[in-house]
TrEMBL record:
<dbReference type="GO" id="GO:0046395">
    <property type="term" value="P:carboxylic acid catabolic process"/>
</dbReference>
<feature type="domain" description="Electron transfer flavoprotein alpha/beta-subunit N-terminal">
    <location>
        <begin position="23"/>
        <end position="211"/>
    </location>
</feature>
<comment type="subunit">
    <text>Heterodimer of an alpha and a beta subunit.</text>
</comment>
<comment type="function">
    <text>The electron transfer flavoprotein serves as a specific electron acceptor for other dehydrogenases. It transfers the electrons to the main respiratory chain via ETF-ubiquinone oxidoreductase (ETF dehydrogenase).</text>
</comment>
<keyword id="KW-0813">Transport</keyword>
<keyword id="KW-0249">Electron transport</keyword>
<protein>
    <recommendedName>
        <fullName>Electron transfer flavoprotein subunit beta</fullName>
    </recommendedName>
</protein>
<dbReference type="InterPro" id="IPR033948">
    <property type="entry name" value="ETF_beta_N"/>
</dbReference>
<dbReference type="InterPro" id="IPR014730">
    <property type="entry name" value="ETF_a/b_N"/>
</dbReference>
<dbReference type="GO" id="GO:0009055">
    <property type="term" value="F:electron transfer activity"/>
</dbReference>
<dbReference type="Pfam" id="PF01012">
    <property type="entry name" value="ETF"/>
</dbReference>
<dbReference type="InterPro" id="IPR000049">
    <property type="entry name" value="ET-Flavoprotein_bsu_CS"/>
</dbReference>
<dbReference type="InterPro" id="IPR012255">
    <property type="entry name" value="ETF_b"/>
</dbReference>
<comment type="similarity">
    <text>Belongs to the ETF beta-subunit/FixA family.</text>
</comment>
<dbReference type="InterPro" id="IPR014729">
    <property type="entry name" value="Rossmann-like_a/b/a_fold"/>
</dbReference>
Length: 249
């Protein structure tokens, strides 16, 4: 079983980002970047399937600028076999990424495509579903457990109503949820070894995909500053204050 994993380079979730002065995007200048946490979980899931003998090869792919090689090298250091960078300077929205990934899937013919359920920069939660539709393949979103069963997969997924277990035939598309696993720590020796693993670069324009933006961000604003708390002398005062605030004017 061959697994293709999509990864995205995003701002580190532990750093504070600011909105640009023109209010059209986040200012990423001098910001630490990292692999999208949900994509990191997807990479870990693919590697574990390979370690269990359920997969034979793990290929990671990223769409974006040349700087996205950092995210791919991290995935290779975790244990992926090889990487593909679909390089472009264009703004990539979920549909565009799905179309580029479809072109890579057509070339690589993986049995499973694993993606993070969403990227933490735009929280779109669309790429996996769009890719499954373009490929006309079964999908399981928000996966919290993946198990190989004969010729297919057993996937437990998180829903608003609880947990759902689905049995899938291959090929398929799966998106990883937070509870799927805890990604392994990437050591410096593994990062050095990752530099020797294959990383191919493809120009997005050669894949024949229409990646033109479908929408435009009109404005972007930071959330309002949190108001300072207020100290009360005792529980009775707290209850009285809460009651007063909850009573309609």
């Amino acid at each position: 079983m061959k697994i293709l994993v999509g990864v995205k380079r995003v701002a580190d979730p532990n750093v504070k980002v600011r909105v640009r002065s023109d209010r059209t995007a986040v200012d990423l200048a001098n910001i630490k970047m990292t692999i999208n946490p949900f994509d990191e979980i997807a990479v870990e899931a693919a590697i574990r399937l390979k370690e269990q003998g359920a997969a034979t090869e793990v290929v990671v792919v990223s769409c974006g600028t040349a700087a996205s090689q950092d995210a791919l090298r991290t995935a290779l250091a975790m244990g992926a076999d090889r990487a593909i960078l679909v390089q472009t300077e264009a703004e990539l929205q979920p549909l565009a990424v799905a179309k580029l990934l479809k072109a890579i899937v057509d070339k690589e013919s993986p049995d499973v495509v694993l993606l993070g359920k969403q990227a933490i920069d735009d929280d779109s939660n669309q790429t996996g579903q769009l890719l499954a539709a373009l490929l006309d393949r079964p999908q399981a979103t928000f996966a919290s457990a993946i198990e190989r069963t004969g010729s297919g997969l057993l996937v437990r997924r998180e829903t608003d109503d609880g947990r759902e277990t689905v049995e899938m035939s291959l090929p398929a598309v799966i998106t990883a949820d937070l509870r799927l696993n805890e990604p392994r720590y990437v050591t410096l020796p593994n990062l050095m070894k990752a530099k020797k693993k294959p990383l191919d670069t493809l120009d997005a324009s050669t894949l024949g995909a229409d990646i033109a933006p479908r929408f435009k961000i009109v404005s972007l604003d930071e959330p309002p500053a949190r108001q300072a708390g207020e100290r009360v002398p005792d529980v009775a005062a707290l209850v009285a204050r809460l009651r007063a605030e909850s009573t309609p004017a």
